[in-house]
Design goal:
It contains 14 helices and 14 strands. By secondary structure, the chain is of the alpha/beta class. The protein binds ligand C2E and magnesium ion (MG) (2 copies).
Length: 366
């Protein structure tokens, strides 16, 4: 794919393409076809394939170890029953199924079924609603406090998007951010939240309130837009909000996709005095590499790591050691998702810098 070409060069990309083809073709019979249709999308037509052969074919791709790479892929299988069906439609259906497991760990293959059609319809509806909701200004920012572990004081907050529908229902980001990321709408949502935060800070500053830095989540999709940084700076200028009151949160999937772009971006934006935190540390892969190479100001430990800490000694040791490593590297460490006193006590003992979690407060409206 394009990532492979960026990281390892075209020659390597081509080599891997050939490797994929030769691994797959072992499991193909005369009259069957495998082809690349674009970038990193492939189609394979099989005659009378049973599940076993399909499984073998995909295992062959998983077992490619060319250049020590692990190939991540998601595949959709569409069983053709109606030979008169439009071939593009067949490919679309396999593709829709594949999309649903993109990024899901340890699931590479999914069979298409009728429920995916319903899902597509539901997504179309949600897409329309989201666009309308943007027009109607239905998105709001909630704020969750970050507490300094030593002083017990409020030292920051994270802005978290909520969708307040016209019938006054509050919808959590988990229900619309994933689709917004697929459609690209998320970049608009991020900017909406960013402006709300700037306006909130402006009003508070004007009222003479002492403000703490507020962090805003930004999707990886911004990084293909070279106007991203100028836009951020221009908006801060517009609201006359000082840079030290703004922090950006990037997730590790953002970083994995665009290493050098994120590196340059982080370095530049920090020169302006804006802090950049790595979000959800420990929830995926490739993140150790990221904290080694990208000049973040802080690292947020993922909530999933913390949840095992008070029951499992190994998890606790692991968590504490990671905190120590990160702090030795000069990072401020923020623990996400502390819910119990026991967890807070442990985090205190381990010298974590800040805690953000239900124990202190849920996200609050303005
Ligand atoms: P995140 O950036 O890692 O935000 C932390 C999430 O953990 C928030 O969920 C927060 O409410 C939740 N949380 C904090 N403390 C606790 C706790 O003690 N227990 C439990 N169970 N949960 C806790 P929320 O608000 O539902 O947001 C989920 C995710 O949606 C965020 O994860 C972030 O990735 C994304 N998101 C939220 N707002 C935005 C936004 O404006 N732009 C983008 N691109 N993504 C956003
Ligand atoms: Mg965050
Ligand atoms: Mg997080």
């Amino acid at each position: 794919s394009s990532d492979l070409n960026n990281f390892y060069g075209f020659a390597c990309g081509d080599k891997i393409l050939r490797q994929i083809y030769s691994s797959v073709s072992v499991w193909m019979q005369p009259g069957e076809t495998a082809a690349r249709i674009s970038g990193d999308r492939f189609v394979c037509f099989l005659l009378d394939a049973d599940e076993e052969r399909i499984e073998a074919l995909f295992s062959a791709i998983r077992n490619i170890t060319e250049e020590n790479l692990i190939l991540h892929f998601s595949a959709g299988v569409y069983v053709i029953k109606d030979y008169d069906e439009n071939i593009n439609l067949m490919v679309d259906k396999a593709s829709v199924a594949a999309q649903t497991i993109k990024g899901v760990l340890n699931q590479h293959v999914v069979y298409y079924s009728k429920k995916f059609d319903d899902m597509t319809a539901h997504n179309e509806e949600l897409k329309r609603d989201l666009k309308l909701a943007i027009k109607n200004d239905e998105f709001v920012a909630f704020y969750q406090p970050k507490v300094d572990i030593n002083s017990g004081k409020l030292v920051g907050a994270e802005a978290l998007i909520r969708w307040r529908t016209r019938d006054n229902k509050l919808i959590a980001p988990g229900d619309f951010i994933p689709l917004s990321e697929k459609t690209g709408l998320v970049t608009d949502l991020d900017m909406i939240v960013f402006e709300k935060v700037l306006a909130f800070l402006r009003t508070s500053l004007d009222a003479g309130v002492e403000c703490v830095p507020i962090s805003v989540n930004f999707s990886r999709l911004h990084f293909s837009n070279e106007k991203f940084l100028p836009t951020l700076l221009q908006k801060m200028e517009k609201y006359q909000v000082p840079a030290h009151l703004i922090e950006l949160e990037l997730t590790e999937s953002a970083i994995f996709d665009n290493f050098s772009i994120i590196y340059d971006f982080t370095e530049k934006v920090r020169e302006y005095g804006v802090a950049v935190a790595m979000d959800d540390f420990g929830s995926g892969y490739a993140n150790l590499n990221a904290v080694l190479r990208i000049p973040f100001s802080a690292v947020k430990m993922d909530r999933s790591l913390l949840s095992g800490v008070s029951s499992d000694p190994q998890t606790a040791t692991f968590y504490r050691s990671i905190v120590m490593i990160l702090q030795h590297m000069g990072y401020k460490v923020i623990a996400e998702g502390a819910e119990t006193e026991k967890e807070v006590k442990l985090l205190e003992k381990w010298g974590v810098d800040m805690i953000q979690g239900y124990y202190f407060s849920r996200p609050l409206c303005e």
